[in-house]
Amino acid sequence: MELTRSGAVAEIALQAGPLNLVTKPLLRSLNAALATLAGDAQVRCVILHGGTGRAFCAGSDIKEFAHLRENASEEKILFEDMVLRRLARLPAPTIAALDGPALGGGLELALACDLRVARVGIALGLTECRLGGLAGSGAVRLARLVGPARAKEMLFTGEVVDADQALAWGVVNRIARDGSALDAARAWAGVIADRGPLSNRLGKQLVDAALDEPLEGALSRSTVSQQAIFDSDDLREGMRAFFDKRTPVFRGS
């Protein structure tokens, strides 16, 4: 795992061999990187990518399954779920840059990010059922993203989709047709990092609340968030910059 910073944008490169298989060491390393980023208020966008691997992530290391049965929750499921939840709950917006296949647990990693950009021609799929396995968190997150019918199709068949079909279904937000997905993600992250960081963090919370909470609760959260924006120095700066016809310099407060 490699964690780097460029200004307000952080990058996590999986760097776990050519296939970036999901193993305990990879999860421990990712968990440590996420813990570092969660406490860094200067980070305004995070990119997760496959580093030098052929795949973004080709899923779990099947060799680890041999000793798992009744102890699977203790040895794998709970820890993996915790790491994915930590990724999903990062305060800053997150982008998965997919320059290689994202399969099984690899797609589950990408689905835990806020946004996804895929290089043209790559394969994506929740392929666990081919082995008699199950994409647990992937089933939930994919259904919320694309609806139950398409999620069930991908889950029940284990078939992969290409980037264009993934875009049409809403699995990914954008396709990188010229250049790499990482380059496209960096350009996209630069735009996000230039926007109001407090606005983006609160906006992320509200979108998540729209899925997780009853309508009235989410709308009450919206009211509180709006007041926080009007209390902020960022809004004052944005207003001054608008009238001065210059680019605002936001501080996230």
UniProtKB/TrEMBL annotation:
SUPFAM superfamilies: ClpP/crotonase. CDD domains: crotonase-like (cd06558). Coiled coil: none annotated. It holds the Pfam family ECH_1. InterPro entries: ClpP/crotonase-like_dom_sf, Enoyl-CoA_hyd/isom_CS, Enoyl-CoA_hydra/iso. One of its GO terms (biological process) is fatty acid beta-oxidation. One of its GO terms (molecular function) is catalytic activity. Transmembrane segments: none annotated. Belongs to the enoyl-CoA hydratase/isomerase family. This is Enoyl-CoA hydratase.
